[in-house]
Amino acid sequence: MNIMLFHSTYGLRPAVRAAADRLRAAGHEVWTPDLFEGRTFDTVEEGMACKDEIGKEELLKRAVLAAAPYSERGLVYAGFSLGASIAQNLALGDDKARGLLLLHGTSDIAPNATAEELPVQLHVAEPDPFETDDWLSAWYLRMRRIGADVEVYRYAGAGHLYTDPDLPDYDEEAAEATWRVALGFLDSL
C-alpha cells in the first residue's frame, strides 16, 4: 500500500517517523510530509499557534502538493490528530484514494463530499476532549451517508495522542492494540 501519513499539531516528531518505519516494516511505502517546514513543538498550544499562523488553507495546499506526485498510485491517507483531519480532507477529494486511516482525529465533512465504499478506520481515545461522543456520532452517520465503509475503535482511559511514546498521553496497551488493528486494515485494502 502507498500511504501518505500526516503529522499532528506537534509537527513531524520522532513518533511519526517511528510510525512510518513500522508501516514500512510491514511492507508499505510511506511518505511523511512536513507541513510545518521543520518546526516541532512541545505543547499543543504552541502547535496550535503554528497551525493558526500558517492557516487551514495553506496547510491543505501543502498537503495536496505533497500527495499529488503519488495520488495516481491510489493512496491510503493517514494522520495523527490534526494530520487525520488533513488526511480526511484529501481522501474525500481524491477518487483514487484506497483508504483512510484516522488516528486521534476527524474533520468536518464538506456538503458535496463523496466517499463511495471508501474504507475508513478511526482510532480514538474514550473520552477524548477533541473528539466528543456527540461529534463522533454525527461524524460517523455523515461518513456513512456519503458512502464510506467506516470502522471506529475507542480506547477507554487513553489520552488524546496515546500512540506517541514521548507525550504524557501515551498508553502502550492502547497504542499496540491500535497498530495491530490498523496493520490488519491496511493489509485488507
Task: Write a concise keyword list for the protein shown above.
189 residues; alpha/beta; globular; Dienelactn_hydro; AB_hydrolase_fold
Description:
With 189 residues, the chain is of the alpha/beta class. Helix content is 40%, strand content 19%. It has a six-stranded parallel β-sheet with strand order 2-1-3-4-5-6, with helices on both faces. Helix 3 crosses helix 4. The model has no long low-confidence stretch (mean pLDDT 96).
Task: Characterize the overall form.
Answer: globular
Most strands sheet: 6 strands, parallel
Range of helix content: 40-55%
Q: Tell me what portion of residues adopts beta-strand conformation.
A: 15-25%
Cα-to-Cα separation, first versus last residue:
8 Å
- What's the tally of helices? 6
Number of beta strands? 6
User: Strand sequence of the main sheet, in spatial order?
Assistant: 2-1-3-4-5-6
Unreliable segments of 5+ consecutive residues: none
Overall pLDDT score = 96
Write the layout of secondary structure elements.
Blueprint (H helix, E strand, L loop, with lengths): L1 E5 L7 H12 L3 E3 L12 H11 L1 H12 L7 E6 L1 H11 L6 E5 L15 E8 L6 H13 L3 E8 L15 H17 L1
Helix pairs in contact: 3-4
Keywords: Hydrolase
Protein name: Dienelactone hydrolase
Pfam family, one: DLH
